[in-house]
Write a structure and sequence with these properties.
This protein is α+β, with helices and mostly antiparallel strands and 270 residues long. Helix content is 26%, strand content 26%. The longest helix has 24 residues.
């Protein structure tokens, strides 16, 4: 092997030792990656999130959370009983690490499709009131508004942070409820910063969230009424920063509207 691959493997074996202990601390079951899987993981991670990213702040966040991403891979391997196979997996293998896609969480076909209605001009929230973001009530999910989603057995996602894809971010706070436990509000402060001060529009988490089989997740957002009266609709497009691991059949979907439910076991209503 080349010296570059040897160095990468030495780093990943060390990280895998740490990730294995993290899994034990969390009380979750994981399985070590073999050498060829570690190579695929390392190449896919660095190419997509570090070398291939021009935003310095985003690159720093991904590099900092590489061990937690590897933990996600180890959980996914055990959970799905399949090989980790990078961005373009073979038949019935696990795709990952790959960017978190909105449809993995039932939000819509893109993060801009926040209400799941395929019309960005209508994808808006009301100011001055808590608004649902990740929940069962999107058109894609077809469930009850405000109810959480449930992660399927062919899906693991590790969340490092949040970002806004809108040119003029307005969301002041995001709150997750995970397995019935409401987390402290994450204050983004995107709205208080000018574009020149906040070109990355990112918010790193202190500790990553790991969504695995049967994790129950809901996320809500708040936009200040300073942007208009309670009835005023305002746009913002939040997105999750991190990595996902998904079984290959679901990654063949070009039209992702059918991803929810038992066929692909990626995401469910509650």
């Amino acid at each position: 092997m080349s010296s570059d691959i040897d160095a990468m493997l030495n780093d990943l074996y060390s990280r895998q030792d740490t990730a294995r202990q993290l899994a034990a601390d969390l009380g979750v079951t994981s399985r070590d990656l073999e050498e060829h899987e570690l190579i695929r993981f390392g190449r896919a991670f660095d190419r997509q999130f570090v070398v291939g990213n021009s935003l310095v702040r985003v690159t720093e966040i991904y590099a900092k959370h590489k061990t937690e991403a590897l933990l996600g891979a180890m959980i996914a391997k055990e959970q799905m009983d399949a090989e980790i196979d990078g961005e373009n997996p073979g038949a019935n293998k696990i795709g990952g690490p790959i960017p978190i896609q909105s449809y993995f969480l039932g939000v819509g076909e893109a993060w801009e499709d926040i209400l799941g209605i395929y019309a960005a001009a209508q994808s808006s929230w009301t100011t001055g009131a808590v608004q649902n973001w990740i929940h069962s009530g999107t058109t894609m999910m077809g469930g009850t508004a405000g109810n959480a989603i449930r992660i399927g057995e062919n899906h693991v996602t590790v969340v490092f942070g949040l970002e806004s894809l809108h040119a003029s971010p307005k969301i002041e706070g995001v709150q997750f409820t995970i397995d019935g436990k409401t987390k402290p509000t994450i204050h983004t402060a995107w709205a208080q910063r000018t574009a020149s001060e906040n070109t990355d529009r990112v918010k790193e988490l202190d500790n990553a969230y790991v969504f695995m089989k049967d994790t129950i997740v809901r996320a809500q957002v708040m936009i200040s009424p300073a942007f208009g009266a309670a009835s005023t609709l305002q746009q913002d497009y939040p997105a999750l920063m991190g990595v996902s691991f998904v079984k290959e059949p679901a990654l063949r979907l070009l039209d992702q509207i059918t991803i929810s439910g038992t066929r692909y076991e990626v995401v469910h209503t509650t």
